[in-house]
Design a protein that fits this description.
The structure holds two protein chains of two kinds. By secondary structure, chain A is an alpha+beta fold. The longest helix of chain A has 25 residues, at 457-481. In chain A, α8 (225-238) crosses α18 (442-451). In chain A, the strands form seven sheets. In chain A, strands 4, 5, 8 and 18 form a four-stranded antiparallel β-sheet that branches. Chain A is globular. Chain A has helices at residues 11-27, 63-79, 90-103, 118-123, 137-142, 179-184, 196-210, 225-238, 264-278, 291-297, 311-319, 360-371, 373-383, 392-397, 402-414, 421-424, 428-434, 442-451, 457-481, 504-509; strands at 5-6, 54-59, 82-87, 109-110, 127-128, 155-156, 159-160, 162-163, 166-167, 174-178, 215-218, 252-253, 258-259, 303-308, 325-328, 341-343, 347-348, 351-354, 415-417. Chain A has 20 helices and 19 strands. The two termini of chain B are 34 Å apart. In chain B, α2 (14-41) packs across α13 (273-303), α3 (59-65) crosses α13 and α10 (205-232) runs antiparallel to α13. Chain B is flat and about 75 Å long. Chain B contains 13 helices and two strands, in the order ααββααααααααααα. Chain B has a single domain (68-303), classed as MetI-like fold (Orthogonal Bundle), CATH 1.10.3720. Chain B is mainly α. Chain B has a two-stranded antiparallel ribbon. Classes of the chains: A alpha+beta, B mainly alpha. At the A-B interface, α3 and α18 of A face loops of B.
Chain lengths: 510, 304
Amino acid sequence: MKKKKELKISRRTVMKGALAAGAMMSAGSIPSKLFAGEFNIPDPLKPLPTTGGNMRWIDSGDMKGVFWKKLFPEYAASRGITIEYDGLPWKEINKIVPIAIRNGTVHDVFQLPIGMDPGVAVSEGWVQPWDDYIENIEEWLGAFPSGVYLPGVNQFNGKTYGTCLTANKRTGTCLLYSEKYMSEAGYDPQAGRMTYSEIRDAAKKITKNGNGQYYGWIIGGNQVNRWEDVVHTFGQVGGAHSGRGGFTNRHINFQNGKFQIASDQYMEAVELLLQLKSDGSAFPGVMSMNAPQARALMPQGAAGMIFQGPWCIGVWGRDAPDWKYGIASEPVPDGKEAQPLYIAEGGSNTFWLSANSTMGPFAGDLIRFMGTEQGQIYWAQTVGAADPAVNPDAVAKAGLTGPSAQALSMFAENILVGPNPIVRNKDVGIVAAKSRVPDPSLALVIQGLYTGQLKGVEAQLKDCNQRYEDALDKAVEEARADGANVTRDDWVFPNWDVYSNYGAEKYQEL
Amino acid sequence: MHKKPLSKQIYDARWCYLFVLPCSILTGMFVIYPIGMSWYFSLLDWSGFTKEAKFIGLQNYYEAVNDEFFWDAFIRSFIFMFGTVPVKIVLGFIIAVFLNNQVLKLAPFFRTVIFMPVVTAIAIIGIVMTFVFSPFNGPANKFLMSTNLTSAPIDFLGNPDTVLPTVMGVYVWKWLGITMMYWLAALQTVPQDVYDAAKIDGAEGYRLWIHIILPIVLPFAIVIILVEAVGALNVFPLIETMTAGGPFFSSEVMEIYIFRTAFVTDSGTMPRLGYACAAGVFWGVAVLFITVLQGLWMRRTRRI
């Protein structure tokens, strides 16, 4: 486990904090304007406790971490508290948060592990609603675009348990490339979406030009979810319409409610990855590096292309500001038109407040500020396209340029809102809680095919598809045995037009 | 002779029991209780952190023994043990023999150097080794390529054929120092007059070692093998930091398998603590069985 990173506050700041605390004792609240900083943090809407304290916060880091590390010291000083921040990869969150919940030491504010049903968190009493801590919460919620706050997703029993500051309109498998290498290979991804053949050819040429010094393509292959992400999104671009999210959404075609892991589009995507390897275009050693390691090698000139998310933009901008790179949409199979990608309604990066937390007033005050237009502008200016702010007006006012602006415009063009079974029937959450991804998962199957430990793409994907079908059937059966009113038909949305957003009126039509 | 009643025996030894009590309480809390609870949990369908836990009898055990990945990990753990313990025992013995020689003035220095990895945090070693064996600018590959031993970098930790031997090699390097110390301790129990007498009788070189020294240190050897075997079955931190069991389960030993099922996986569904406990209990019994076998072997050897 990584060592906790406690935000260091300078002696001067501490003295300012002490002065402010003194002022607060007499005035009842802390005038934040005492602190000249990067952020104009408004006064709290109502007086905060004067007892101070330490607020612990954990999330999946990346650009969020960059932003929090700038904001938290200023916010902490303005409110007379300390903030301990842990920005960790999802793999670590998935391990740490369940253990912390189990032993009652979870952070004040945290993200739930991937795939964990929020309904379980609420019913088990791990979290408390934000309503008591966010002043005028109804008005505050009203400022968010529709579809961000939804019953069964982040609202339960009429209260808001999860807060979202960011949109989920993004993909994690964009084509990011070295301008120099790609140009030397004779390709310009900005001229139009590249095809699989073009990707393969470009990778071959880059590798040839590299003469052993650099290669055409790289991936963080020991982080198994990267394989699944690439195949899933490429499959969608190829025309395998499906949902995103956890096990009960992902890879399911909501037109018929069936998994489509064995579809031609998925097979083509897997074949592309295998061809990149067999061509010798893959960076040697992809199987022993994770996604951040692979990403870090790009500016070092190790490879020409990587399929990753917009979070690379901020990291590269900080670590390799002089390196020239481009961002483009995912490639499309030869002879096909790119199809839309889908997200479920709701936001992303949902923050939950621990039921044991005594720092609710401060957490609520901070979240409330971050949900205002000014807070969202601050967020967008630092985080950019990596985790896009949920308020589109704030994003427009943030004045983003370069790859961030390009990525956001790409996402706006390529991504639609698709159906979400849990919005239709909250008992789907019970199925999610009971579901288990079968072994080996799709991610591992693709990894196994890539390493050569598994043979036969079609047979393996068909087997995998059947395992997923059986696993969902079993979870539905178990949920029904526990009284849930749910059937596999809840995954069938016959009125889904794959070329338009699936909104509230569509659910009403069902 | 008239035997005292049990209550009287206990009363007479009350101070002994009193002194044993703190240790018994701690053992109960931190050894007996967790073992008992893991047996109980293994009978439940339980994620480990929800209120809902259903008693399912031996179903977790049934599922585990029918899971090919369970058996793969099970066998892999023993491959790891059989691949590392003999190497450590033999290598440790040879090094100890050399460093036990009083004539070698730099023996303390070499002992320290060989022992140094033992006192280094295993997680740190695991992470550093991922860089050492990296195909891109990793020193291992740089060395191989600069000496023309290979023409292309080897993905030691990413290739299913090389990953386990590589981790085994790191494990041997990391813990060789402790094996050497065991052997040094054993060798230092051989009295100097045995060496002197052997020399007078004309036993030198390999004959001295085979016929004189080895029989004396043999009982130690059995204890060392036992300790090493159990140690080689507990390699979680090294493998988790180096490969996390990958690629595609190639280095997944039992502890990694148990960990993977006990916690939320990369795939993102609820963990299965009940199932993981069943796998853990099964594994614990297997290790206990081996330990008992070795214990019996030790007793038999002592009799000889």
